[in-house]
Amino acid sequence: xxxxxKCLVWDLDDTLWQGTLLEDGEVHLPxxxxxxxxxLDSRGILQSVASRNDHEHAWARLEALGxxxxxxxxxxxxxxxxxxxxxxxDRLNFAHTTIAFVDDRPAERAEVAFHLPDVRCYPxxxxxxxxxxxxxxxxxxxxxxxxxxxxYQAGFRREAERAAAPGPDEEFLRSLDLRMRIGRATxxxxxxxxxxxxxxxxxxxxxxxxxxxxxxxxxxDPRHEVLVVTLTDRFGPHGAVGVLLLExxxxxxxxxxxxxxxxxxxxxxxxxxxxxxxxxxARSGVHLVADFRATERNRMMEIAYRFAGFEGIEDDPxxxxxxxxxxxxxxxxxxxxxxxxxxxxxxxxSVDAPDLTEQEGGPGAR
Length: 366
What we know:
Elements: E1 7-10, H1 21-24, H2 31-42, E2 46-52, H3 55-64, E3 75-77, H4 81-92, E4 99-103, H5 106-115, E5 120-123, H6 143-146, H7 148-164, H8 169-175, E6 178-184, H9 190-199, H10 212-219, E7 224-233, E8 236-249, E9 252-260, H11 269-284, E10 287-293, H12 299-307, E11 311-312, E12 333-338, E13 349-352
Parallel strand pairs: 1-2, 1-4, 2-3, 4-5, 6-13, 9-10
Antiparallel strand pairs: 6-7, 7-8, 8-9, 10-12, 11-12
Helix pairs in contact: 4-5
């Protein structure tokens, strides 16, 4: 199945609007095209621009048309469209398979397709049909997906302030007033969990997608903890940025899934989660075993585990994992082991989390 489009990059002249701005002076925006932009935005699909135009003139026209706010990281200038699309994808940290490009000129689409073969290209006459295509129809619709553009725009403002901030990076992170909340998933939050397992590839420890029906079974299973992680700062909410799936065994917590959004890697969210979990396990007197399956894109997650002290179970043999399903029965799966001790969870953010030393509803739950 083709990946869902995460970002659609628009040409302007005779694609988004009718007419050529530099030649005609006036251009016309069909109301049906405006509706497509708004609809895709409501689905959590980011949109950008790759156009050969004078930037100041074209951006002023987008503002006058009331559409400028819908486009992130616009590339308006005179370079090759493929270079523009590549820069947008790199800045968003999106795989090319999740990028789409729409242009009225076959030569422009061919140039992008040649240099970026994984980017999907569409002719302008297909614009009105895009919302009906499967690749533009995400499997879930959540609070976070509906405000994804605003969260990314806030993220760009954070990045700009970070680049301009003097002093050590840790001082800047403390200035953000970062607040992480780790909570047990409810039925209403499951769509956010499912979306994270679908969208996150670089920071997904196993690459496994857990569908809604499976997650609903797990949250009602007393042996499992399905935890949703959200993050806020003084710029606003980052939304749901992580999910942990934990199974309890005697003397062992089995971390079957850890996935975090790539958007919060720079804030140390993954390290904070692993430190919190290790500290909670130490207080509960249990070991941790984490599942990891290498993919083409999740090397960063393996580094996070290793940095947190996890070792391959063959390098750190321990009888605690004897009751787990054999790795040989699960192709590509590795097991990482940690005998944890007390830890400082974070020096740059506050963490509000349940007490895992007791199961939900027990005297230690909060």
